[in-house]
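User: I'm preparing a small set of examples for a lab meeting where we compare how different chains pack in three dimensions. I only have the primary sequence for this one, and I'd like the structure in token form so I can line it up with the others. Please keep the answer compact; I'll paste it straight into my notes.
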Amino acid sequence: MRRLVAVVTLAVLALVTVPAVASAQTLSEGMCGRAVHHLQHRLGELRYLPASYTPGCYDYRTMQAVTAFQGWRRLGRDGVAGPRTLSALKTANIPRPWSNRHILHVEVHKTRQVLLLVGGLGRVQRAIHVSTAAPGHVTPDGHFHVYAKYRMSWSKEFHVWLPWASYVVGGIAMHSFASVPPYPASHGCIRIPAPEARWVYKKTPIGTPVNIR
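Assistant: Understood. Below is the structure token output for the 213-residue chain.
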């Protein structure tokens, strides 16, 4: 009888512990700990986060960085670091830009929903998740330049404030926005997550080339 009780107890413990092990293989918003710290360190190595950004808690900025990585690698974009994403991170390289021009410039990869800020040596400084035009709207392809900048710009057409706006063609700007979902959702602009928008604004003075396609 004691042996039967012991077997049943072990079986119950096995059922209880299996989900815990599985959940440890997935990191998502709200989680904190060493695994999240390592994730942020790796994302920093690959330029999806600033190298010094390792708070150890999975916050909005980390979620957006994971979404950028998933977009670049053409994985499902959900901002959750599941087994497939974590495995891909182990062998990933820093994103490579289209251009080999050794000047500061921006590339907006619409199919990946990723903005690359490329430094003067032709190396990617940051890879950032963005959201471009939703169906029925257009983020134009082409080679443009930042022609105007406003810390706070009012869109007369859509009646909304656009913080940290850098205009590249017509009324199309790279700017901060409260909602930057993992799919194209804008009226044509290039939405940037708030934690990254100010940095992009400061790094792209008037005249900075911006390539979109």
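A couple of notes for your slides: The helical segments are 2-23, 34-45, 60-72, 83-91, 194-203. Strands lie at 105-109, 114-118, 124-129, 142-145, 148-155, 160-169, 172-177, 190-193, 209-212.

User: Perfect, thanks.
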